[in-house]
Specification:
This protein has helices spanning 13-25, 36-40, 61-69, 88-96, 109-127, 156-166, 175-182, 191-204, and strands at 5-9, 29-33, 49-52, 79-83, 101-104, 130-133, 136-139, 144-147, 150-152, 212-215, 219-222. With 227 residues, the protein is α/β, with parallel strands linked by helices. The strands form three sheets. Strands 2-1-3-4-5 form a five-stranded parallel β-sheet, with helices on both faces. It is elongated.
Length: 227
């Protein structure tokens, strides 16, 4: 199983050392940044979770979280605030900034480890509900599609076509197979209908349109392409 990566962002170096030791002892790959600015110089999107202090010199944790939520590369990255700001208003501000959890200092390491595990497990369950290719995401629960973080409005037929093809990357489906799998059995349509819907879908997928490949004489497939 791939080791989960956690970034601790806190200006208290002793606290960072304690957290890093316990995270690594629990099997995580853990790194630290001692300011929000230092964290931004790292590849934040490569991490699976941030443990983030609020009150730091320069940019605050709230500001860093808001910046992350505005970036499609990090907008879904889980954040747990670890902070001495412990009023109800502080907590509400933290969640408004995009927190997945909020732990008040002083805290026990056991509590933090439990919160980390819970947030990562929750994120894993959500990941099972999405199909991703680069920055193209299909959410199979909400029935939504996003490209570069922006939702793309598809018809039911377009959505079902994309879901079938992206779920089976590289597999070529004939027009007949697409009709049988996507269109209701009691609806009579021609194979030309498939071509029309694929053309509309390509327009809506913007730069990912090149991934919808037509195989002359065979049908269509979703294939990885240099974007």
């Amino acid at each position: 199983m791939e080791q989960r990566k956690i970034l601790v962002v806190d200006d208290e170096r002793d606290l960072c050392d304690i957290l890093l030791f316990n995270l690594r002892a629990s099997g995580y790959h853990a790194e630290a940044a001692f300011s929000a600015e230092e964290a931004l110089r790292m590849s934040i999107a490569d991490f699976d979770l941030l443990l983030l202090d609020v009150m730091m010199p320069g940019m605050s944790g709230f500001e860093l979280a808001q910046q992350m939520r505005a970036d499609h590369l990090t907008q879904h990255l889980p954040i747990i605030f670890l902070t001495a700001k412990d009023t109800e208003d502080d907590t509400l501000q933290g969640f408004a900034a995009g927190a997945d959890d909020y732990v008040k200092k002083p805290f026990s390491i056991r509590e933090v480890m439990a919160r980390v595990k819970a947030v990562l497990n929750r994120g894993a369950k959500m990941a099972d509900k999405t199909i991703n290719y680069d920055d193209l995401t299909v959410n199979t629960v909400a029935k939504t599609v996003t490209v570069d973080g922006e939702e793309v409005i598809l018809t039911r037929t377009e959505y079902e076509l994309l879901l079938l093809l992206i779920s089976n990357k590289g597999e070529v489906f004939s027009r007949k197979q697409l009709l049988e799998n996507v269109w209701p059995q009691d609806v009579i349509v021609t194979e030309r209908t498939v071509d029309v819907n694929i053309a509309r879908l390509r327009k809506k997928l913007n730069r990912y349109s090149v991934c919808l490949v037509s195989r002359t004489g065979f049908g269509y497939s979703f294939e990885e392409r240099a974007i």
